[in-house]
Amino acid sequence: MNLLVTTSHSVLRVDGGSGAFEPVHRGLGLYFGIATDGERYYVAARGRMVSSVVPPEEESGRILVFDRALRLTGEITAPFALRDLHEILWDRGRLWITCSFDNMIAVHDTATGAWERWLPLGVPAEPPLDVNHLNSLALRDGRLFMVAHNFGASELLEFDPASRELLARSPLGMCSHNIRWSPAGVPYTCSSAEGALLATDGWRVEVGGFPRGMAQHETETYVGISEVAERKDRDLSTGGILVLDAQWRPRRTLHLEGEGLVLELHVLP
Fold first, then answer.
1. Which among 75, 83, 114, 254 could bridge 241 via Cys, Cβ 3.0 to 4.6 Å?
2. In a 3-state reduction of DSSP, which class is residue 192?
């Protein structure tokens, strides 16, 4: 089983057993969200690294498009800046793209090429715009879920994707990333600042480090673990992937030497 993994400066294909990895793409700064429509893979590329001297307000990211063989076939750019790209989501011909710097979700129709800016929690009263650090997206049972990181006590937000109405919000972790569901249908996240996975019903597993990015395959769960480091040192740190069994016990760690932060994981067919 192989994983597609994004890091501080690479898109990697990683062997989920041995941990051997090879680069799929490099050279466009930090890479983050991964989505697929079944035929293509969409990967967010920020165009700058965490340690870059380029100011974040000058950042303008893009979405890279790869075929099933992970060959780059194109890229998608917006008529406005995509800043601080985090998770992306594909659903029925649309890409939903978190742009944390602007507290914004960019919505792109891949058939017509149309773009839309959506501010789920309204326009911030004053700069900085990144009030909630919206960073994660998921669809389930006709609802769109989102993580508001909030630079501290985080929230799980629930929207009607058609009307964009906010239906519910509840606390979920500290500086959280990702939304997944347990077999019982309970949402859980990486509570990154606590080095733990935790769910809305109180379930919790300690994993250490700075967890972010999760994928599941059969009885195993893969969790990206980054070193806790100063911002200037993060891009060349050594991240890894912690592999947990069906009882959430650690089985092995896959080390990604020199690849920096681990941002997102996706199981390849």
1. 254
2. helix
